Amino acid sequence: MKKNALINAELSYVVATLGHTDEITICDAGLPIPDETQRIDLALIPGVPTFIDTVKAVLGEMQIEGVVMAEEFAQVSPDLHQALIALIRNEELLCGKKITLSYVSHEAFKVHTQDSKAVIRTGECTPYANVIFQSGVVF
Question: Which residues hold substrate?
Answer without folding.
Answer: 28, 106, 128-130
